[in-house]
Amino acid sequence: MHFDELFAIIGGMGRYQIYLSVLGGLLSVWSVEVLTTTFIAARLDHWCCVPALQRLSPARQKYVSIPRYDDAYEQCRRFDFNYSVLSDGEVDAWNRTARVAGGYVGYSACDDGWTYNFTDYESTSVNRFGLVCGRSWLVQFASTLVVAGTLLGAVTSGLISDKIGRKKAMLIFLAVKVLGCVVSLLATNYETFGAGRLLLGLGGGGTYICMYVLVMEMVGPHYRTHVGVGYQLAFSFGMMLIPGIAYLVRNDRWLQIIFAVPHVVFFSYWFLLPESPRWLIVKGRYEEARSVLETAARINHKKLPEDIVMEDIKTGPDVEQNGTVLDLFRTPRMRIRTLVVYTHWFVDCLMYYGLSLNMADLSGNVFFNSFLSGAVEVPANLLCVVLLNWPLLGRRFTCSFALLAAGLSSFICIPLILTDTGTAATAMAMFGKAFVTIGYSAIYVFSTEIFPTEVRNAGLGSSSTIARISGMVAPFIGGPMTKIWKPLPHVIFGTMASLAGFLALLLPETLNQELCDTVAEAEAFRGGRKSRKKDDYQTSPNGWSSRTEQKDKTISGGNADIEEKREHLTNNFDDENVGMTRL
Question: Where are the domains of the chain?
């Protein structure tokens, strides 16, 4: 008996699974650590501090000491003049036009630091660590450190959870996440703050994935997609919650405390969660596995028969998944598909984080914009499920349509930004975010079906790594690029999304198709309404396939058999690449 067959006995989505899904969803809500940087390190209006002029109002300080460029006061230069020699009357009578025109003043850097405008915020990491002018790039780098930590957490979580168990690993990563919160909170310099953000990402990525795997291993195969969508909706709710909290709490230290407190509460999961029975069986801890399964059955009003022998239960896939990343590139057709999938993952993640992290660059209220950025994901994720299974679109056209629409939205933003039509540009950016969300969720499902079973883990793991690398780049596409040319980020997003959208058309359609087990089958598979059988292939002496016949054969057993195989093949979990997740 395979482990997944047990769910027909104990229940695949009963009260017990709902209980676990709620616990996982609560953790997912607070897994948006990378997006908190928008408010913790919110940009502040600033100008050079002139100690001799601190008695003046901010407007008068700027008029007397700060040069103007392009109809705005500069933020990183001041007039090179010793204002301490002036009397109060001379300062009050200062005529900047005459002084500048007469060449009486030069320019100098902000040697005495900066004065900040605290109208919108009480304090942020920007003023605490001086992240302005030549150090302004460190704001984006803080987000990059979180994503880098997430990548490290994803890589290590699989190794650790396979060794010590899902629950223990989740709590260890949770401790690392709380440690990161504390280090960031108590930091007195940027280096320490950056280390805290790295730990925060490391712990956050590992916690999320370990919890996700634990829940998924307790959910029946037919319900895992629904739970995955639920996880994504919880993440989106977190994106809506954070701006609301930040709107009420304008101090970065208090905001970090509020963000950390729920994670301390999550340590109660030690008492509330079971260990994964699938993992327990793999480790030979059969009595513990039976105890967990009996508890699940009892809560679901089912009963686990006494005659089921835990030692006889299989937990792995029928086809060994021992391929490597190199195997994805050994054959020409698989090579092209892999590169297209990588491109799609890279662009999806780049646009997703590029738009999410740069709400401050859009017209309007940053808190409301960030709330909308999360809100649009809810209908987008639900619509994605419909589109993926709609015969007129399927997997391929959904992925292509999503990125082409996102690219078009970005291109439409360009003239709107240039003509200062801010509200319309913000609206189009939100449309773009919605389409990117559809594409991001769709590509995971599509990738799972594109990669054959023997290299599926390698394919999904490497794709996820590519996505996280682009997530590390994304923070620098927003704010820094707007200083070169305001619409430049949308030019980049629009161009890359359009390219990836058209490339997606090179992939075969996999909706209602029998999934491939080997690279040999995948190399000959072309998608469409018909699928090939294993008899259509032969293996060449070097271990790789050459196609012998190209006659189409109808799928045996009908769509029901295909979906049964699809469930079996796509729901064997590898901790490093699970999930419809943004992490």
Answer: 1-43+128-316, 46-117, 321-511+515-554
538 DSSP β-pair partners: 546
Chain-centre distance for alpha carbon 16:
28
What tokens appear for 368 in the block?
């409301």
pLDDT for 29-77, tens place per residue? 998 888 888 899 999 999 999 998 988 889 999 988 999 887 889 999 9
* pLDDT at residue 470 in the model: 92
Distance in angstroms (rounded) separating the CA atoms of residues 583 and 580: 9
Eight-state DSSP code of residue 134: G
* Each residue's pLDDT tens digit, 363-419: 888 999 999 999 999 999 999 989 988 888 889 999 999 999 999 999 999 999 888
What does the block give as tokens for 222?
């037919």
Q: Among 447, 486, 481, 469, which Cα is nearest to 580's?
A: 447
DSSP secondary-structure letter at 504?
G
Q: Under a CB-based contact definition with an 8 Å cutoff, are residues 378 and 229 in contact?
A: no
Backbone φ and ψ of 539, nearest 5°: -100, 130
DSSP string, 116-134: E--SS-SB-HHHHHT-SGG
pLDDT at 265: 94
582: CB partners within 8 A, 6+ apart: 232, 235, 352, 440
Question: Residue 321: what pLDDT?
Answer: 56
Cβ burial 115-145 (10 Å sphere, 16+ → b, else e): bbeeeebebbbbbbbbbbeeebebbbbbbbb
Same fold, 1-43+128-316 and 321-511+515-554: yes
Give the pair of three-digit tokens for residue 406.
């996102």
Residue 419: the pLDDT is 86
Comparing C-alpha atoms, which of 498, 514, 387 is closest to residue 443? Answer: 387
Structure tokens at 309: 């022998």
CATH class of 1-43+128-316: mainly alpha
Alpha-carbon distance of 506 to 199, in angstroms, equals 39
Spatial separation of the C-alpha atoms in residues 89 and 96, rounded to whole Å: 15
- State yes or no: pLDDT of 469 exceeds 80: yes
- What is the DSSP-derived secondary structure letter of residue 162? H
The rounded distance, in Å, linking the Cα atoms of 389 and 382 is 12
Q: Is the pLDDT of residue 548 over 80?
A: no
Q: Is 440 exposed, middle or buried (0-12, 13-18, 19+ CB in 10 A)?
A: buried
pLDDT digits over 127-140, tens only? Answer: 999 999 999 999 99
- φ, ψ for residue 251 (rounded to 5)? -110, 125
How many Cα atoms occupy the beta-carbon half-sphere of 394 within 13 Å?
17
pLDDT digits (tens, 9 = 90+) for 250-268: 999 999 999 999 999 999 9
CATH 1.20.1250.20 fits 321-511+515-554, yes or no: yes
| Continuous H helices in 389-487 | 394-418, 422-450, 456-473, 479-484
Q: Where are the alpha helices (DSSP H) in 249-393?
A: 252-265, 269-272, 277-282, 286-299, 332-356, 366-375, 377-388
3-state secondary structure of 117: coil
Q: Cα separation of 576 and 583, whole Å?
A: 11
For the chain, the straight-line distance linking the first and the last C-alpha, in angstroms and rounded, comes to: 34
Q: Give Rg (Cα) of the chain.
A: 27
